[in-house]
């Protein structure tokens, strides 16, 4: 489109008609040209021209658009801080909403709540514990442990035969009669019991339960124990039935003289730190294989009397080799044999190191080995003796007929001898 400043003459029409007047005026009376001046697109004779327009992007920049290189640059720190705060707020809000929805979902699904931690495997049932685990040993032994009930007292015991024989402590049943004696098993069942026999000096007794088909314990070898071996104590401390405690063998051949105002009991005990309290008496001390190695009997306490005594980690058990022999004698013969050396010793003082012989039986084992009154026994089978109590307790540990080495002092000389122990004549 143009304004006509560069218009040039057009060639004459091909039909020989005259050219229109200058200035593009239409012929008079022609409808075609009546509005040609108002609509140049309808004028076929209007000259044409191509006008090239410059793109806006190529135009010279205005002075305001020029950047001053010395002008200070805008800081982006506020923008970054705003973005960081926004992200934290969004994360916190999202986490809170997620927690709320999860908790609501948990309550909607039965009140389980949010599950925390990694999924855990179901532990095996108690019956499936490994036999040599503590739980396995407890499961094995508990059916053989009983609570011994006597009027006004509670103790413990353990089944040693399927037909109902139970070993316990003598001091548990010393006031019992067959009308007041009963036992309770780990499954809650109870049965009447009767006293078979007692040996007050060894603190071992046997009762018979009026029930058959019982599970007897397995016996271990108390002579094979070592300090540090793990052990479990079973019983009913303070009337809490089916209690199991765990510890180690703290010492071996700890000589014990027990009994106040009655029979004095002597034995070379197994010391343990397994918790033992009143009511544990007569219960089994068991090794890691589930075998009975001792009979829990006494504790040492800082209390002033037995009623107030409690566990302080010093408990003592009769070695099972001794208790089994005594119990077997009671069942088979109605009374127990006591092992003796054939001499009377001085007790109640530690003025000398060793067991001084007050008298020696002429036909006894000590006399046969050449020992005389006044000799001081310092060792028996390697165990150092401090006084006469040690000699009595250690001798009773052995079976009648056992031969032991003895070291003794006569004047300034040290002698050794082999002594074959015997059962007393009572």
UniProtKB/TrEMBL annotation:
The keyword Hydrolase applies. Residues 330-387 form the PDZ domain. It comes from Paractinoplanes brasiliensis. GO terms for molecular function: serine-type endopeptidase activity. Residues 1-40 are annotated as: Disordered. Residues 9-23 have a biased composition (Pro residues). The chain crosses the membrane at residues 79-103. GO terms for biological process: proteolysis. This is Putative serine protease PepD. Belongs to the peptidase S1C family.
